[in-house]
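Task: sequence design from structure.
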């Protein structure tokens, strides 16, 4: 399996970082009476997403890598739930909610693509078929002219 020279070059990390920065900007505008509530949770969860991608790229064992990536994906769903609650509390507008959900969706697609990449690598490494009934979330058509050795190219096509 190809090791990455730097996780910061991966689109999945770049988009997760963008999401974390959006969450920081948004929560700065939350009411002062929320100082230790929803805003803090949103920030902590948002920071953990790009951190999970970074951690996963540094691990040697594909099982450990997948576990960290699954945790990162779960954090995206937790963050989505928190955003709906922020909307319910009138901390963010419907337009802001939709904008954040759009960025979350981008991150979900990219992290799912990264998970699928590691699943394939694990399958190729073990030489056996993985009987995993989870759906393939990739939302793109394969590009026959793409460089098969470039992981980032695959994620750019998601």
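Answer:
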């Amino acid at each position: 399996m190809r090791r990455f020279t730097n996780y910061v070059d991966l689109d999945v990390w770049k988009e997760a970082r963008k999401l974390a920065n959006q969450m920081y900007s948004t929560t700065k505008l939350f009411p002062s009476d929320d100082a230790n509530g929803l805003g803090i949770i949103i920030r902590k969860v948002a920071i953990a997403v790009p951190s999970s991608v970074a951690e996963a790229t540094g691990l040697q064992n594909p099982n450990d890598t997948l576990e960290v990536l699954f945790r990162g994906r779960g954090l995206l769903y937790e963050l989505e739930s928190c955003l709906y609650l922020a909307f319910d509390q009138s901390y963010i507008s419907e337009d802001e909610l939709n904008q954040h959900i759009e960025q979350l969706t981008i991150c979900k697609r990219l992290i799912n693509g990264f998970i699928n990449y590691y699943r394939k690598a694990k399958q190729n490494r073990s030489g056996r078929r993985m009987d995993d009934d989870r759906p393939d979330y990739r939302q793109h058509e394969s590009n026959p002219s793409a460089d098969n050795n470039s992981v980032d190219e695959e994620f750019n096509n998601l």
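The radius of gyration is 17 Å.
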